[in-house]
Specification:
The complex is a heterotetramer. Chain A is of the alpha/beta class. Chain A is built from six helices and nine strands; from the N terminus they run βββαββαβαααβαββ. The chains are: A alpha/beta, B mainly alpha, C mainly alpha, D mainly alpha. Chains A and C meet through helix 2, helix 3 and helix 6 of A and helix 1, helix 4, helix 5 and helix 9 of C. Chain D: This is Heme exporter protein C.
């Protein structure tokens, strides 16, 4: 069935200040949504609300027609979220990190799958180096390896290009475009000028 | 209630120290809490008035002095 | 970088996660923490070294006299075990909170309460159990009568599980705070008192030859209550700290 | 039902309702406290065993009752805030916490002082005093946690969770401390094991307890109203209120 996440009159108040209000967003298969706005305009907060992580917002949020908080498990099974912090624990190697991430979604997966995902992100040879010793960009790449490792319909990426070099950015842009063409949906924020061969929808905050 | 019987009553048969210290601390706390709450409210009102005055320049007041300020 | 599967349609997964998936997630979270501790043994050994050190301070502070120490041994062993568990609680969620893994745990299809129990179980395996195994040696240091060593270990094994569960609530509440560890002990120590009372009570009963079972039964009851209430409280606290 | 909860929960409506209720509560509190004190200090007979130090009961027992019921009320208010998102409930919880802590301290101090003539020492690890001491630590924990968060409603939610966890633990702590105390001092004299107080001793105690509760309600109403003004300062009705007060 087609993917659809719809937000009606979405609003969020932080310390008596309205970050945004009255937002109507319809995320459907094949969309790439880009959230723009200066720093502190609530971009990350909006993404966290769309990912179902923050509960205190006004307005309604529906996933496949029913309210998000009731369809949480189903929604989470289709969501891939990448926040500011990559979610790669320093004490584990990239392979162990990815193995845990797959297990978190209930898939045992295989070593070969994980190595393939790491090599698509250019991390050959670093599979067994504890993530703590990798650079910020490499840690971000370990997190981005999840995009090809665990196929999820909806991607919510919070500034995925931070600390990524030019080659990596280009590869990621093509991956995002391919995901949208294959029927998936992407909601992302970035200060980077995107050149993706796919129509973009914009949300301006602040 | 002659003076003597008043003093004798206050001595509480030798336990006066304990009874009055216990009652005294209780009274201090209860009265203190009540006064603090009133003070807190008055300060809050004064602060809100100052903020209100700062945001909306109030019309030039006549010679009558504002009792609350 | 070749894009292998471009044409495959992206399917929306509809069937909910079943029990078998939950088992994989919990097992993986447990193994993850054990592996991480294997790499950084300091985090595991510090509470144990603190436990041994603190116990050996008391004879210097009180007196080397064996009969005097034997009277206080159960209480001292239990209080220092409790403080050592408290020491290691701060790191329970902090590293996951800092590197973003906690966010991933919250956004996975499985309930956060069961993942929290897996985290606390890993913490118990790495602090509660080793302390229970180490306690007899420290009991000898404090001239603890030999007949109560078994009960000491049993009470520590049972008690430290409740300590980890109740402590997990405090750790989850203070994980987002910069200087949270001092506040953590302030929140959690009053809740530790029933476990301390029945734990050291069991060892004292063993020394005096009284019935030990009621004490251990009450410790088990506390553990059961902790298992029922604290996962819910830990999950709610983690959601609060994430937004904090 | 739902409409009533939200109407009850709106700060403006609560502010006006409490304005009418408050003078009555203060009046009742002062009346009850004065009559109870005069009766307890002057007319109630002294205890045959403890003599006049028994009169401390008219302060110790009401404070102890209030200390525990304030914690339970705070936990219930926290639950109402967490489940139905009624902000006034959290404002009331924040307002009553210091009062509960103060009452716990008063109960602790008066209990210790009461024990001096009977036990001869200033502190005695009596079962009830120990539970009261732990309750004081729980209060300090809740108040400290509420203030530790950057954002006010995170602190509010954290304090609500801790209050609920605490309220579940209070009976457990009370039971384990009583069990611990009877294990170590089975035969000694405990303060509250009163056979049955004669009426003229018991009636002033009832009046004092009612007086303490009215005092609690009146003070909580007043402090909640201040909290409403502080948190809703930007609301139009507060601006209007300030405007006409100027």
């Amino acid at each position: 069935m087609a993917l659809c996440l719809e937000a009606r009159q979405l609003g969020c108040e932080r310390d008596d200040r309205w970050l945004f209000e009255g937002l109507d967003i319809d995320v459907k298969g094949g969309d790439i949504w880009r959230v723009d706005g200066p720093n502190g305009s609530g971009k990350t907060t909006l993404l966290k609300i769309l990912a179902g992580q923050l509960a205190d917002y006004s307005g309604t949020l529906r996933w496949q027609g029913n309210p998000l908080h009731r369809a949480r498990a189903h929604f989470a099974a289709n969501l891939l979220y990448l926040g500011h912090a990559p979610g790669v624990s320093a004490g584990l190697t990239p392979l162990e990190n990815l193995a845990w991430y797959q297990a978190l979604h209930g898939e045992r997966g295989s070593e070969a799958q994980r190595e393939a995902a790491l090599s698509t992100m250019g991390l050959e040879g670093l599979e067994d180096v504890p993530a703590g010793r990798l650079s910020a960009g490499q840690q971000r790449r370990v997190a981005l390896a999840r995009l090809s490792l665990t196929p999820r319909a909806l991607w919510i990426l919070d500034e995925p290009f931070t600390a990524i070099d030019h080659a990596g950015v280009a590869a990621l842009e093509t991956q995002i475009a391919a995901h949208a063409q294959a029927g998936g949906a992407v909601v992302m924020t970035t200060h980077h000028t995107l050149n993706i061969a796919h129509p973009l929808c914009h949300i301006a905050l602040g | 209630m002659t003076m003597a019987s008043l003093v004798e009553w206050a001595a509480m048969g030798g336990h006066g120290r304990f009874v009055w210290s216990a009652w005294g601390v209780t009274a201090v706390f209860m009265v203190g809490l009540a006064l603090h709450a009133r003070l807190e409210r008055r300060q809050l009102l004064r602060q809100l008035k100052r903020q209100a005055r700062r945001q909306t320049p109030s019309p030039p007041r006549g010679p009558s002095h504002d009792p609350d300020a | 970088m070749p894009l292998s599967e471009t044409t495959r349609r992206v399917a929306v997964i509809s069937e909910p996660a079943d029990k078998q998936h939950l088992g994989i997630a919990l097992g993986a979270t447990l193994m993850r923490d054990l592996n991480r501790m294997r790499r950084r043994p300091g985090d595991v050994l510090n509470p144990l070294v603190f436990y041994a050190l603190a116990v050996s301070l008391f004879p210097m502070g009180i007196s080397p006299e064996a009969s005097l120490l034997a009277v206080m041994a159960p209480g001292l062993l239990w209080v220092t075990a409790l403080l050592a568990a408290l020491l290691s609680l701060d790191g329970l969620f902090r590293s996951d909170f800092d590197d973003g893994s906690l966010e991933q745990m919250m956004l996975c299809p499985h309930p956060l309460t069961s993942l929290a129990v897996a985290k606390v179980a890993a913490h118990w395996l790495l602090t509660g159990l080793p302390m229970a195994l180490m306690a007899p040696v420290l009991g000898i240091l404090l001239a603890l009568p030999m007949n109560s060593i078994g009960v000491l270990m049993a009470s520590l094994v049972l008690g430290s599980a409740s300590l980890s569960l109740i402590g997990g609530i405090g750790a989850a509440l203070t994980v987002g705070l910069p200087r949270g560890s001092v506040l953590l002990s302030l929140l959690v120590l009053p809740l530790y008192i029933p476990v301390l009372i029945f734990g050291s009570g069991a060892v004292q009963a063993a020394i005096m030859g009284d019935a030990v079972l009621p004490h251990l039964a009450l410790l088990g009851a506390l553990l059961a209550a902790a298992l029922i209430f604290s996962p819910w409280a830990i999950a709610a606290s983690l959601r609060i700290s994430i937004n904090g | 039902m739902w409409g009533l909860i939200h109407k009850l929960g709106s700060p403006k409506w609560f502010y006006q309702l409490s304005a009418r209720l408050q003078p009555w509560c203060w009046g009742a509190a002062i009346l009850l406290l004065v009559t109870g004190s005069v009766w307890g200090l002057f007319f109630a007979p002294a205890d045959y065993q403890q003599g006049n130090s028994f009169r401390i009961i008219y302060v110790h027992v009401p404070a102890a009752f209030l200390a525990q019921s304030v914690f339970v009320t705070m936990a219930v208010a926290g639950l109402v805030y967490m489940v139905w998102k009624i902000k006034v409930a959290d404002m009331a919880a924040a307002a009553m916490a210091p009062l509960g802590a103060a009452m716990t301290f008063v109960a602790l101090f008066s209990g210790a002082v009461w024990g001096v003539p009977t036990w001869g020492t200033w502190w005695m690890w009596d079962a009830r005093l120990t539970s009261m001491l732990i309750l004081l630590f729980l209060y300090i924990g809740v108040i400290a946690l509420r203030g530790a968060f950057g954002r006010r409603d995170s602190g509010a939610r954290a304090a609500s969770v801790l209050a609920m966890v605490g309220v579940i633990n209070i009976p457990i702590i009370k039971y384990s401390v009583d069990w611990w105390y009877t294990l170590h001092q089975p035969a000694s004299f405990t303060l509250t094991a009163r056979p049955s107080m004669p009426l003229e001793m018991w009636l002033p105690l009832l009046i004092m307890v009612l007086g303490f509760y009215c005092f609690f309600i009146a003070l909580t109403l007043m402090r909640t109203r201040s909290e409403i003004l502080r948190r809703e300062a930007k609301a139009r009705w507060v601006q209007a209120l300030i405007e006409e007060a100027r």
